[in-house]
Inverse folding.
């Protein structure tokens, strides 16, 4: 079985997001799986990017590189050019996300992360919405198989794009072992706090890009009100994530709650090596998202032994699996009370920590890779 993996995301060095993280975690494990010959397809102009791919070569994978930008290659795809000249002879082409692709004799496998562009287009830039809709509509007719990151996403894909359920499979993400190890490493937690200048006080933690779908304003409203209550929380609030877009209202919210100002810390982008101990040291991780196709911080927090507070939206209850406290993303009052309750109730925190740690145990990237290889086998058994 010859499998081509689109690899331009493996060579990126900045503005990394959730799909980048998924692909970078999955591919090294997948290359170790027996039963397929893998080729990476890359396109970039900067020779320095080649160095970032050396670790993949050591797993014995082949490389097909073209000296052009990914945008040029995508433009050729959109013109209907056959991809086989770029790809070589392959049985399967696996795309890490829905994107338009040129003609090919290979069977196309696509990972579907979410359909936010369909249900919450206001949370994305307008040009992205149109591109994602067109690509998903086209691939619904062309792709042989879809890997979905949650049952929620799988159901959405079947319902809204008519993809036959027999051509889909849910494969959950894994959790890197560093998150489990961090829960037992107090030294690493203290070192990370010192490095990131996080005070010695307890802290709630938000993890994610500062963008509309993450619903950070509701968290700030709730925490600000809690700080102004008769019995304010002991824990501060730490925000870990790069600034995205639509963040203008945050300054206004902070100005309305002056007692919150000195208890709020914006870290910006946090390196992956620091994220695990930062999570492990938190009193609780709060993810107030209005939409997630998976919600990686939920599982990572649970693996790190950190209580999770998240919403009733989209895939989040599925991923939390009864091991988190859920709240309505539009109810800042309910979140305020939940923050105060979690802050002051150690028994509740211990219960959430134990339930979450058990919930996260089965989720590994090795299992994700094993199931992905099995999905390729399913794909080859289907009619085109």
């Amino acid at each position: 079985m010859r499998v081509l993996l689109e690899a331009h995301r493996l060579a990126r060095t900045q503005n990394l997001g959730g799909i980048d993280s998924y692909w970078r975690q999955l591919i090294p494990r997948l290359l170790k799986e027996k039963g397929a010959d893998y080729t990476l397809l890359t396109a970039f102009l900067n020779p320095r990017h080649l160095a970032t791919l050396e670790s993949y070569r050591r797993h014995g994978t082949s490389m097909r590189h073209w000296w052009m930008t990914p945008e040029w290659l995508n433009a050729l795809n959109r013109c209907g050019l056959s991809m086989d000249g770029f790809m070589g002879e392959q049985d399967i082409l696996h795309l890490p996300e829905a994107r338009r692709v040129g003609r090919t004799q290979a069977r196309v496998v696509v990972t579907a992360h979410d359909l936010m562009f369909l249900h919450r287009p206001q949370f994305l830039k307008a040009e992205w919405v149109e591109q994602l809709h067109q690509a998903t509509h086209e691939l619904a007719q062309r792709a042989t198989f879809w890997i979905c990151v949650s049952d929620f996403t799988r159901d959405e894909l079947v319902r809204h794009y008519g993809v036959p359920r027999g051509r889909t499979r849910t494969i959950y993400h894994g959790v890197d072992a560093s998150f489990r190890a961090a829960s037992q490493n107090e030294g690493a937690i203290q070192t990370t706090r010192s490095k990131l200048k996080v005070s010695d006080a307890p802290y709630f933690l938000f993890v994610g890009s500062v963008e509309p779908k993450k619903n950070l304003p509701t968290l700030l409203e709730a925490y600000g009100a809690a700080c102004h209550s008769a019995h304010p929380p002991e824990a501060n609030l730490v925000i870990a994530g790069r600034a995205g877009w639509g963040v203008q209202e945050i300054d206004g919210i902070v100005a309305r709650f002056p007692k919150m100002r000195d208890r709020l810390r914006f870290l910006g982008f946090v390196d992956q090596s620091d994220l695990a101990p930062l999570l492990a040291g938190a009193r609780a991780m709060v993810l107030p998202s209005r939409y997630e196709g998976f919600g990686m911080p939920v599982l990572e927090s649970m693996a790190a032994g950190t209580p999770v507070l998240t919403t009733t939206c989209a895939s989040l209850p599925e991923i939390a699996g009864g091991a988190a406290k859920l709240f309505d993303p539009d109810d800042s009052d309910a979140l305020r009370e939940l923050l105060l309750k979690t802050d002051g109730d150690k028994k509740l925190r211990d219960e959430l920590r134990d339930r979450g740690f058990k919930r996260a145990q089965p989720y590994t990237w090795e299992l994700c890779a094993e199931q992905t290889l099995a999905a390729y086998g399913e794909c080859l058994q289907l009619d085109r």
Notes: The radius of gyration is 22 Å. The chain has a mean pLDDT of 91. The longest strand covers residues 37-43.
